[in-house]
Design brief:
This protein has 4 helices and 3 strands; from the N terminus they run H-E-E-H-H-H-E. About 20% of the residues are buried. The structure holds zinc ion (ZN).
Length: about 90
């Protein structure tokens, strides 16, 4: 298991609203700060006027930056767009 997976996928709380996350609860990464947030917070983030632009830039730099650090940069970067649960990984 990659380091990011341990740190992020099993976060115990949403980093935005501090809602407690159960291991089975879906969470998703913020494109702004790469923190795991709950789905309602992601919905809010998606409403931000610069969301589309920020996410496009994020995926480019994310793939480049994490390639050196992680064995599975795609898995990490795409979790900014696809919700996941702690338990599945
Ligand atoms: Zn939240």
């Amino acid at each position: 298991m990659d380091e990011w997976q341990e740190k992020l996928t099993c976060a115990l709380a949403c980093q935005r609203c501090s809602k407690t996350l159960d291991p089975n609860d879906q969470r998703i990464l913020s494109v702004y700060d790469h923190e795991p947030v709950c789905l309602p917070c992601k919905k809010e983030e998606e409403q931000r006027p610069d969301y589309e632009q920020v996410s496009r830039e994020m995926i480019g730099t994310c793939m480049a930056e994490t390639e050196m650090m992680y064995s599975d940069p795609g898995g990490y970067c795409f979790h900014h767009f696809y919700p996941f649960a702690c338990k599945r990984l």
